[in-house]
From TrEMBL:
It comes from Alkalicaulis satelles. This is Uroporphyrinogen decarboxylase. PROSITE patterns: UROD_1 (PS00906), UROD_2 (PS00907). Its main location: cytoplasm. Transmembrane segments: none annotated. It comes from the Bacteria. The keyword Cytoplasm applies. Keywords: Cytoplasm, Decarboxylase, Lyase, Porphyrin biosynthesis. CDD domains: URO-D.
Length: 341
């Protein structure tokens, strides 16, 4: 059916050695990325510049020959496209002019689709430059994680304001999640149409939620996105990444409709193997800090994960994004070790 090892695993096959790619594989740890970035003063304009975005998407593929590429974009393009003020100040992380549920009326799904059209153009350019065996992942943030940035006005320690609002104004809050989900459905459908063969939903802030909130703000909107895509006849596999969900990841895997689960490095591997459906493809778990450290510690962790997930459909990856201080040679060591067995 497919000669792409990454797609075989997402289809439920066990492939040995496992396919490999890295979360945030395009980025500042690569000198060739920093060179392009230096020419692109505004980060959002960079993400919406198809030539520049395609170039940095392809850089890690050329250098390392990963089994999958991920379109260079950002989860905060959705709030930007919806009409929220979003900006990136170097060294500070993302900033947004906070919204409340009352602002929903001013946010437009149709506008988001139009503003984000250049991302589809990036995908077309990347597709044309990729080896036939390399997959291309399109992505969006999950509604909960995106909403936390929209409400808090940026990253926050514990998403307290977003959680309080979810409790105090459930109708308004769920309306905002639905709006983000609907914008994401259109955006992801466009990415598949442009040539993405896989989709990923980043729920970076899925940790520390009590069960009822996890079900309401993580599971329900994720399910809405996947059902929305399937209703349009889109069959591309969807990887869900409910970072930090712990045991709630089991419910997430069973109820959302995700094809595969990306696991963070804090998840107990033995517990996950015993408690997740045997046929569920799994990706991830290498601690980005051990990739930065390199050496024997890195080799040992690679061996541990390869044996922890042996015999299961598994994609080798990090448990979170690569750290910008990671020496590029450590990535070479990682790939040689994974591919060399
Ligand atoms: O190879 C790739 O994965 C590149 C595409 C990509 C980016 N961001 C580019 C980026 C992806 C998949 C993301 C996802 C993303 N963005 C997430 C979810 C994954 C995660 O790490 O939890 C989140 C939470 C964001 C929001 C975001 N964007 C933050 C918090 C930051 C600042 C932190 C940082 O690393 O500087 C960004 C900026 C950003 N997005 C950069 C890149 C390469 C660095 C910006 C720069 O070059 O100056």
């Amino acid at each position: 059916m497919t000669d792409k090892p990454f797609l075989k695993v997402l289809g439920g096959e066990t492939v040995s050695p496992p396919p490999i790619w890295l979360m945030r594989q395009a980025g500042r740890y690569l000198p060739e990325y920093r060179a392009v970035r230096a020419q692109q003063k505004d980060f959002i304009a960079f993400c919406l510049n198809p030539e520049a975005a395609a170039e940095v998407t392809l850089q890690p593929i050329r250098r390392y020959g990963f089994d999958a590429s991920i379109v260079f974009a950002d989860i905060l393009l959705i709030p930007f496209g919806l009409g929220q003020k979003v900006w990136f100040t170097p060294g500070e992380g993302p900033r947004l002019e906070p919204v409340t549920p009352a602002d929903i009326a001013h946010l437009s799904v149709a506008r988001a689709r139009e503003v984000l059209a250049p991302v589809s153009e990036t995908i077309r350019l990347v597709r044309a430059g990729l080896p036939a065996s390399t997959s291309l992942i399109g992505f969006a943030g999950s509604p909960w994680t995106v909403a936390t940035y929209m409400i808090e006005g940026g990253g926050s320690k514990d998403r307290f304001a977003a959680r309080a609002l979810a409790w105090s104004d459930p109708e308004g809050f769920d309306g905002l999640l639905d709006l983000i989900a609907d914008a994401s459905i259109a955006y992801l459908a466009d990415q598949v149409e442009a040539g993405a063969d896989t989709l990923k939903l980043f729920d970076s802030w899925a940790d520390s939620l009590p069960d009822p909130l996890f079900d309401r703000v993580v599971i329900r909107p994720t399910k809405r996105i996947i059902e929305g895509l399937r209703a349009q006849g889109i069959t591309a596999p969807v990887i869900g990444f409910p970072r930090g969900a712990g045991p709630q990841a089991v419910r997430y895997a069973r109820q959302t409709g995700v094809t595969a689960l990306a696991l963070d490095h804090g998840m107990d591997s033995h517990w996950a193997r015993a408690n997740l459906p045997e046929t569920l493809p799994v990706q991830g778990q290498l601690d980005p800090s051990v990739l930065k450290a390199g050496g024997a510690a890195l080799d040992d962790e690679i061996s541990r994960l390869l044996s922890a997930w042996a015999g299961r459909p598994y994609v080798f990856n990090l448990g979170h994004g690569i750290n910008l201080e990671t020496p590029p040679e450590h990535v070479e060591q990682l790939i040689a070790r994974v591919r060399g067995g």
